[in-house]
Amino acid sequence: MKRDETSLKAFIALKRTNDAIDIAIRKDIRKYGLSVTEFAVLEVLYTKGPLTIQTIRDRILIASSSTTYVIERLIEKGYVIKEQDTKDRRTFYVSITDAGRTVMEEIFPMHAAMIQSFFDCLEDDELEILKEALKKVSARVSNII
Amino acid sequence: MKRDETSLKAFIALKRTNDAIDIAIRKDIRKYGLSVTEFAVLEVLYTKGPLTIQTIRDRILIASSSTTYVIERLIEKGYVIKEQDTKDRRTFYVSITDAGRTVMEEIFPMHAAMIQSFFDCLEDDELEILKEALKKVSARVSNII
DNA sequence: TCTATTTAGTTCGAATTTGAGATAATTATA
DNA sequence: TATAATTATCTCAAATTCGAACTAAATAGA
Questions:
Q1: pLDDT for the residue A138
Q2: A132: domain CATH number?
Q3: How far apart are CA B126 and CA B1, in angstroms?
Q4: Closest chain B residue by Cα to residue A62
Q5: How many domains are contained in chain B?
Q6: What is the DSSP string of chain A?
Q7: Which chain B residue's Cα is nearest to A142?
Q8: Most A CBs within 10 Å: which of B64, B66, B120, B134, as the mutation test of the A interface?
Q9: What are the tens digits of pLDDT across the range B37-54?
Q10: Which of A95, A123, B79, B115 has the smallest number of Cβ neighbours within 10 A?
């Protein structure tokens, strides 16, 4: 198969894999009344600690207006709080609350187990190459855009 | 790094790569007045020929209500037509029109070149493993769900 | 210092997407 | 054959997402 053709096939496989996993996660997380985006925000705050709104947006790659929206939903649910930075009053830090942490502690193990089961069809070295190759490609995409 | 941890990292990299590419494609295709979903439908009809609505839905993994919606948009734009199957009157075949083909012939080379440039940071064997690994994972996900 | 530019986040309207529940046609079963 | 179950698609309301334009605050440059 020619190089160009392989790239296109890889892209199609990437899209399909992502979409299929997304559907699985959506179903799973819906039980807890969360959308995939809400979960992504909670997850990054849970693992990385308090972040500015902008950092959250860069992490999960959604429009900034969507970031405002999803954080508002999470505040309503009591899972995060938003605090203005005293030094730079344009920026806000978002942190997970105890209630948010409790939900994540309930969801996360099942979520992680599901993800792991998706990848358990790969050998160790395949998985490693997959991970590294994806990192290279996403860095490349960010560079080009 | 432990196996489980690598799976989670691979998943995060997958999501991030997909989202970044999606944003790039959206920008690119917007110039032609198409959404990413509309483009995906056109692309599959362009490369695979006429398909039923259900097959299109399975290919691009969106809700069936969304399939109805996006095909309606494409009909309005004159890029596809919908024809009822004479044998099974529940099913409809969707085909790309000449106008749709013309648009695809205009967009597709640039689109393909962009995709290829995203993957040109990988060696041939890395790309091959990436593609095959993604196929395995998406098959695995479909099996589990 | 004054003004221009940049940065962080929000508002708003329009477009898209979803899930739940129809409808209509086909197929399986009693 | 009559009825039940399945299949293909659609309708609808609600939720999400986006892009464009905005406000407010900080920083850079004259």
A1: 96
A2: 1.10.10.10
A3: 20
A4: B19
A5: 1
A6: --HHHHHHHHHHHHHHHHHHHHHHHHHHHHTTT--HHHHHHHHHHHHH-SEEHHHHHHHHT--HHHHHHHHHHHHHTTSEEEEE-SSSTT-EEEEE-HHHHHHHHHHHHHHHHHHHHHHTTS-HHHHHHHHHHHHHHHHHHHHH-
A7: B20
A8: B134
A9: 999 999 999 999 999 999
A10: A123
Which two structure tokens, joined as six digits, stand for B19? 């989202």
- E strand or H helix that includes residue B80: strand B80-84
pLDDT tens digits for range B60-86: 999 999 999 999 999 999 999 999 999
Residue A104 structural domain: 3-144
Question: How does residue B145 score in pLDDT terms, banded at 50, 70 and 90?
Answer: confident
B144: confidence class by pLDDT, cuts 50, 70, 90: confident
Position A32 pLDDT exceeds 80 = yes
Give the number of A-B residue pairs with CB atoms closer than 8 Å: 174
Residue type at A42 in one-letter notation = L
Chain segment B128-139, per-residue pLDDT in tens: 999 999 999 999
The C-alpha atoms of residue B31 and residue A116 are separated, in whole angstroms, by: 39
Measured CA to C1', the nucleotide nearest A52 is: C8
Which nucleotides of chain D have an atom under 7 angstroms from any protein CB? 7-13, 15-21, 24-27
Token pair 């160009």 in the structure block, residue: A4
